[in-house]
Every structure is written in structure tokens, then in C-alpha cells.
Design a protein that fits this description.
Elements: H1 2-5, E1 19-22, E2 27-30, H2 56-65
Antiparallel strand pairs: 1-2
Length: about 70
């Protein structure tokens, strides 16, 4: 509803909550699944890496929560 009031359309109309503003491109973008490359079990024990698979839902949650960190 908010998008229609602003006369904007989300990049993926089926998943409007997976939308964010990309400051690099200056437009709305959709969160996409980030396939990990060369993922090994040992990487989950490093403190400098997030121990999660970057799904659109996880990215959306992290993006919303990270300003409070």
C-alpha cells in the first residue's frame, strides 16, 4: 500500500518486503540470495564471519537491525 501511495513499484511485486534503497545506484533494489563460494564448515567458527547463509530474509532482518549495533 505504501508503495502505491508513493507511486513506486518494488523490483519484485511478489515480494515487496524484500525491497531496499540501494544508495550506490540511487534506486530500489531487491534482496537476493547470496550463494556462498567455497563454503566450509570451519568458516562458521571464525568470529569475523556471520555464521549464516545470506537469504533475502536474513539480509532484510540484518539491514533493519544493524543501525542499533
Amino acid at each position: 500500500q505504501l508503495m502505491s501511495w508513493a507511486r513506486e513499484s518494488p523490483p519484485d511485486a511478489r515480494k515487496p518486503l524484500d525491497t531496499f534503497f540501494d544508495s550506490d545506484s540511487g534506486r530500489l533494489a531487491a534482496y537476493t540470495f547470496q550463494r556462498p563460494e567455497n563454503l566450509a564448515l570451519e568458516q562458521f567458527f571464525h568470529s569475523h564471519m556471520l555464521p549464516v547463509i545470506e537469504t533475502p530474509g536474513m539480509q532484510r532482518g540484518l539491514h533493519g537491525f544493524s543501525p542499533w549495533l
